[in-house]
Amino acid sequence: MNQSIVPDSEARGLLARLPEPPRILASLARLDRPIGWWLLFWPGAWAVALAGGAFVRWPLILWLLLGSIAMRGAGCVFNDIVDRDLDARVARTAARPLASGAMSVKTAWAWLLALHAELARQDGPWAAAIEPLALDFAARFHAFLPKMTYPLRVGTHFNSSFALIHAYAWAEGRDPALQALIRERALAWFGQDRACQAWEPGGDEFLSSALTEALLMSRLLSRDEFADWFGAFLPDLPTGQPATLFTPATVSDRSDGKIAHLDGLNLSRAWCWRGIAAALGADAPIAPIAEQAALAHLDAALPHIAGDYMGEHWLASFALLALE
User: How far apart are CA 239 and CA 252, in angstroms?
Assistant: First the structure.
């Protein structure tokens, strides 16, 4: 008898063709194992069909589908956060993103909060359905951030600034205490940063460590405060330095999942540069420099949103950030 154990989270089929960032998120939500959301979707869809509304109420059926996927995915995220230590000791579950270390816990929290915030913009009932889960993750931010002595200054999934930008946006109007805590921790981590050298990009990065930090600070400080901080953080910007921040990354092979990350870097830099320019105001001397840098990065990346599967399945989300 075959005694081999098939892991319940593995890169196979279409999932294996995704580049790393969306592959990890898809694995976390078990999109490679649709049986969970089938069990939620089909009873509801069949009930609509039996009532004679399958064709005239197709928006309802679509909401049932999207809600089933979102609810099941959110449940899997919560389950994996709670069980990550146990999962790491079991062969069947050791490859799950949190158990294996492929994704940080705070990134999973921020992903869930961003999902809830997006659902809240829609007319469907799903935001209310997952609100208790979002509130639970917000509570985990409250508990974890005071213990986090140092931020993670990287250009991949573990970047602290990127997670806090989204968590801070979620907390607006929902959790003033979390906003205050994020502001307190960010100022402690980044408030005294000076003369950033911007040694980037790394070969597989899709975020700018320097610019995501700056964008986070722009959300937390007043215009005058941010202008003072930003001028000290990147004092040589008026002379075009550090040049690394003004030069779009070269993407040598868009069929390589890691190298394709660099298109995402160009788009996320454009997002950051545009946000920084808006925070400084149109009258700031740096604002046109930031806008020009954003356009250069957009021009480098937008033509490549589609064309190869390694990028086209996730770059659109970064393009939406860059164009917001």
Answer: 28
Its pTM stands at 0.68
Q: Which among 82, 102, 122 is the end of a domain?
A: 102
Q: What pLDDT, in 10s, does the model give residues 121-133?
A: 766 677 787 788 8
Please, are residues 8 and 27 in contact by the beta-carbon 8 Å criterion?
no
Q: How confident is the model over 50-68, as pLDDT tens digits?
A: 666 555 566 767 767 776 7
Domains of the chain: total: 3
Tally of CA atoms within 13 A in the half-sphere of 114 that contains its CB: 16
Residues 128 and 230 in one domain: no
- Alpha helix stretches (DSSP H) within the chain: 13-17, 20-28, 35-50, 58-82, 84-87, 97-100, 105-120, 126-144, 160-171, 176-190, 209-220, 223-233, 261-280, 287-301, 309-312, 315-323
